[in-house]
Amino acid sequence: MVTRAGLALADHIESHMDELCESVLAAQKPIYIDQSKPFLRAWLQSEADYLRGETDRTHEWVAMLSEGMRALGGGIEEILEQVRIFRDAVAKACAGKVQGLRDAELLESLLEQQDRHHRHIGAYWAQRMREAVAAERRRQCAMADLMDRPFVMLDAEGAIMMANHPFARELGMPMESLNGKEFATLCEADTAAQVRRAVRQKRSTQPSFFEGTLISAKNRAPQFRFSVQPIFDAHGRRDGVLAFMRHMHAVRSENSDLLADAADQIIGIVPTAIEIFDRDRRMLYRNNFAAALPNAGETPTPFCCRLSYAQHDRAYSCSCDRVFATGETFQGEGHIVLGGKTHWYQAVIAQLHHSDDAPARLVCMFRDVTVQRTIENQLMRQQQSSLASQLAVTVAHQLRNPLGVMVGFAEMLARGLPPEHIPGAVSKVLRNGLRCKEIVEDLLRFGQGFPGERVSMDFHALVKEYLQPMIPQSDCARITWQLPEEQTFIACVPAQISQVFFCLLQNAIQAGAEEIHFTANCE
Q1: Which one has a higher pLDDT value, 492 or 1?
Q2: What gap in Å lies between CA 189 and CA 185, rounded to an integer?
Q3: How does DSSP classify residue 470?
Q4: Which whole-number Å values give the CA distances from 517 to 30, 266, 477, in the listed order?
Q5: Distance separating alpha carbons of residues 317 and 279, to the nearest angstrom
Q6: pLDDT digits (tens, 9 = 90+) for 6-25
Q7: Which of 108, 100, 116 is nearest to 7 (CA)?
Q8: Whole-number Cα distances in Å, 234 to 287, 347, 384, 453
Q9: How distant is the alpha carbon of residue 253 from its chain centre?
Q10: How many degrees, rounded to 5, is the angle at CA 20 between CA 15 and CA 22?
């Protein structure tokens, strides 16, 4: 809307263009002076045109400024700071010089223009974020397609968020028709019930395994071994699941001799690490794949005894002891840390019977699932990063306008205002200050509402995977770690308890201690 104040300011801008350019450049950081020159005159001219009611080219100027700042490594914060510098420099250069325009009216007009710039900047960066999210999704789909077996990601309601081409081929359906479809409707009834049960388990952190059948458009019912892994949002809440499927090609035969002959022929070549040992942990058999496991040739100890399991029963030193004691087959995931890198393995431990049915021997099978775990962790981190970026931009936009009003009127009060204008300026500062306080309190309440989920975790893995990555390498070299010798599991929220340990260590580091001892005992 064209106003008297706007026309007066437009006339002043056009008649003092060179003087205003010099004033704004003088307020710039030296690194931005050369880059600001092409933007500045375009900005002043677009402001004058807008104030006269002519074509609004703010979006063109915002795009030019944003791309220029991005080329210098700047983000939205630097762009908003440039707009503030432009506004303050123009306000200072025009104060008391615009004929027929009081300083209060001048500042009010400039703040209105700043709000318009912020809206255009927000819209521009929201579009860039949507494009970045789309590009990230394409990268995630590419990673999913690298897997050689069917894979889907489901949201908290069980709808398909992502699927790979092997899954679409199994169903005989086009990829674009899968997104948003309820996964359970693509399964046989019993399998659908298992899937819905896995999705509804909001507190479980453990994967679930079951056998099931998909409903294929090719008039066949392929059977799979389902592996369903929960995923979590930035606050530790269940936010869906990842489902991996593996074909069931087991051949059953009533002839035990045939099975024994087949086992003798394929056990040495099947691409799975297999070990067989007795109650005294004496190794009776180890195939080539097991011999290639990390450090397998350096120790006769069964590989299962060197893994750490999240679901480990503390009454037994290893899961194989539990199988010897109870006769129940163990199936789960364990990890081992080598050279600072964590390797994950899916383990199956089952008993072998003598003629008297005494479970004197065990067979252990291991499959390296490190790549799978890495992909799952990358997907989770990318989801968290995208949400955090959206929240940060939203809060920045919410706070920027009221803070700009407060700073502007505070500067006017500092320079001096006529007595009749002081109450109005103070009222605007107070009102916008209260608005800032409401935004911060809402953000604090939002952050306190999600305490995270307690899980059982090995203390050694907690230190290596959560605490140590938080500490700079130079500071970490000064710390002597004295951890419990035995494997110890604690019930905790890993991110929160790691933050407590980090704060204690940070206090010691800031105190200037040359050597720091971190000693922990779990009881």
Answers
A1: 492
A2: 8
A3: G
A4: 46, 52, 11
A5: 13
A6: 788 788 888 888 888 888 77
A7: 100
A8: 42, 29, 5, 11
A9: 48
A10: 130
Of 261, 265, 239, 306, nearest to 458 by C-alpha is: 306
Work out the angle between the directed axes of helices 30-51 and 4-15 (0-180°, nearest 10). Answer: 130
Q: What span, in angstroms and rounded, lies between the C-alpha atoms of 383 and 374?
A: 14
DSSP one-letter string for 431-448 = HHHHHHHHHHHHHHHHHH
Residues 316, 320, 321, 327, Cα dihedral to 10°? 120
DSSP string covering 44-57: HHHHHHHHTT----
- Cβ atoms within 10 A of the Cβ of 432, count? 19
- Return the closest-CA partner of residue 22 out of 73, 92, 111: 92
Helix (H) or strand (E) holding 476: helix 473-476
User: Global pTM?
Assistant: 0.35
| pLDDT(136) > 80 | no
Helix (H) or strand (E) holding 335: strand 330-338
Terminal CA-CA length for the chain:
71
Q: What is the pLDDT of residue 159?
A: 92
Structure tokens belonging to residue 31: 């690194």
Among residues 271, 240, 238, which one has the least CA distance to residue 450? 238
Tokens 């911060």 correspond to: 440
Single-letter residue type at 339: G
Question: How many Å apart are CA 23 and CA 87, to the nearest integer?
Answer: 11
Distance from C-alpha of 330 to C-alpha of 310, rounded to nearest angstrom: 13
- Tens of pLDDT, residue by residue over 309-348, are 766 666 777 888 888 888 888 888 888 877 767 888 888 8
CA–CA separation, 62 vs 124, rounded Å? 8
Which one-letter DSSP state was computed for residue 411?
H
The residue assigned the tokens 């500092």 is 414
Greatest distance between any 2 Cα atoms in the chain: 108
| Strand, coil or helix: 32 | helix
Only one residue has tokens 């995923």, namely: 231
Note whether 336 and 294 are within 8 A (CB). yes
Q: What is the Cα–Cα distance from 208 to 150, expressed in whole angstroms?
A: 16
